[in-house]
Amino acid sequence: MVFFPVIIIMIIAGLLRNFAENVYVQRALSGIAVCVCVLIADAVSKLWSKSIKNKFGIIVFAVVLLLSLFTDISSGFFVLGAGLLGILFFGREGSEK
After folding, report:
1. What is the DSSP letter of 75?
2. Which of 33, 52, 63, 69 could bond to 57 as cystine, CB 3.0-4.6 Å?
3. How many Å apart are CA 97 and CA 94, to the nearest integer?
4. Rounded-to-integer distance, Cα 12 and Cα 10, Å
5. What are the pLDDT digits (tens) for 71-97?
6. CA distance 87 to 52
């Protein structure tokens, strides 16, 4: 699922080096940038409705958002930390079934 987009990005990157100064390419990339913003907003909206279901999710979201905006901590640490918090917070619920 990731392979195809990676190939497309590599092809575009190779071509971009040759045509970066072209006015039409610059205009096309401006349009693509807007499209990417919309796609990211759509993905965030879908993830929000599936992920933020309780106070725990809201708190984790707020903490990660603030830390990512105001620190230089790598996003990988946020993912690992949120995963560990989820295991600690919800871990016992799943073991009782």
Report:
1. H
2. 52
3. 6
4. 5
5. 999 999 999 999 999 999 888 665 554
6. 16
Query: Are 48 and 64 in contact, with CB atoms under 8 Å apart?
Result: no
pLDDT digit string, tens, across residues 8-46:
888 888 877 777 788 887 898 899 999 999 999 999 999
Q: Are 52 and 46 in contact (CB under 8 A)?
A: no
Quote the CA–CA distance of 31 and 93 in Å, as a whole number.
Answer: 47
Neighbour-count burial of 63, counting CB atoms closer than 10 A to its CB (0-12 exposed, 13-18 middle, 19+ buried): middle
The CA dihedral of 62, 36, 16, 74, to the nearest 10 degrees, is 10
Token pair of 51 as six digits: 């992920």
- Of 1, 28, 2, the residue nearest 12 (C-alpha): 28
Query: Rounded distance, CA 85 to CA 55, Å?
Result: 13
| Token digits of residue 75 | 């996003």
